[in-house]
């Protein structure tokens, strides 16, 4: 079986949007994933301010959340988003890299629950926070 971190890295790299958005996996550890995205003028949502579009932020948060599920100690083989509720707190500062830290904090037989926070360089003031539920597919024969 593939080592979980390698598997998750391959999972993220296989997502066309993660490559297009320049997402970089920074940390994977027991249900925690940190994924970052550099500022890119192609993803500006408001040309007057230079603020990154909320869709790019939500894609980052969703990807980090899926990665957190995939590296959970229960070793799922697949996941998909059921629900992701995002609260946008403030615009990301133009020109700054944004980082999402997701934690898979609870799993049931078939659902994983995640919390995620996204920040720019001002790590004391979140850009957005979210909670989500994700499908959890385990390998056949694994413990329930």
- In DSSP terms (H or I, runs of 4 or more residues), the helix count works out at 3
Shape: elongated
Strand order of the largest sheet: 1-2-7-8-9-6
Class per helix and strand makeup = alpha+beta
Sheet with the most strands, sense and barrel status: 6 strands, antiparallel
Helix content range:
10-25%
Tell me the quaternary state: single chain
What is the chain-wise order of helices and strands?
HHEEEEHEEEEEE
Mean pLDDT: 91
Proportion of beta-strand residues: 35-45%
Radius of gyration: 15 Å
- Give a count of the beta strands, DSSP E runs of length 2 or more: 10
Taking the alpha carbons of the first and last residues, their distance comes to 19 Å
Q: Low-confidence parts lasting 5 or more residues at pLDDT below 50?
A: none
Task: Give descriptors for this structure.
144 residues, alpha+beta, 6-stranded antiparallel β-sheet, two-stranded antiparallel sheet
In short:
With 144 residues, the chain is an alpha+beta fold.
């Amino acid at each position: 079986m593939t080592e979980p971190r390698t598997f998750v890295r391959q999972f993220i790299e296989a997502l066309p949007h993660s490559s297009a958005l320049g997402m970089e996996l920074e940390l994977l550890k027991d249900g925690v994933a940190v994924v970052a995205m550099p500022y890119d003028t192609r993803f500006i949502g408001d040309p007057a301010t230079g603020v990154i579009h909320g869709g790019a932020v939500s894609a980052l948060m969703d990807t980090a959340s899926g990665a957190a599920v995939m590296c959970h100690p229960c070793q799922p083989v697949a996941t998909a988003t059921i629900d992701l509720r995002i609260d946008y707190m403030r615009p990301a500062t133009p020109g700054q890299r944004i980082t999402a830290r997701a934690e898979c904090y609870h799993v049931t037989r078939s659902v994983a629950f995640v919390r995620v926070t996204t920040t720019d360089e001002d790590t004391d003031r979140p850009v957005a926070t979210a909670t989500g539920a994700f499908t959890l597919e385990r390998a056949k024969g694994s413990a329930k």
